[in-house]
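Review form for a predicted model. The reviewer records the input and the model, then writes brief findings.
Reviewer: anonymous (R2)
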Amino acid sequence: MSPMISPAPGGFEVRAHVPVPTVAVLRPEGELDMVTSPELVVRVEFHLDQERHVVVDLRDVDLLTSNALHALLAVHAAAQRRGLRLRLTGTDHTAVTRVLGQTGLDAVLPISASSTEEVVAALAHPRPVQRD
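Model under review:
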């Protein structure tokens, strides 16, 4: 599926693609703040409504505010209520790492050190749980 781009105020945009039918990747670019966070929430909820797991790749986020953190917590909870998974990737740069670490949300939000592609593969083809 081709990428969808959703422009928002201040040059912020969310690139989205669905590499497999059960997983969507959203890649916000710019500042994720009070003005732009609602756009990300709408996009995540759209894909959750389509019964897709969602990967949010934060590598191109320049600023992460408290409003953005609240939005990420809200969509994480929304995914859990639907029995779906939300994963964050691309968090290994200062604009994101520092905020998540200082707030303690790096221990709460589902952050993956794996690449976006690896997370998509894992969500698309989950391993069966082995029972003893």
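Findings: Residues 66-81 form the longest helix (16 residues).
Further findings: The longest strand covers residues 23-32.
Recommendation: see findings above.
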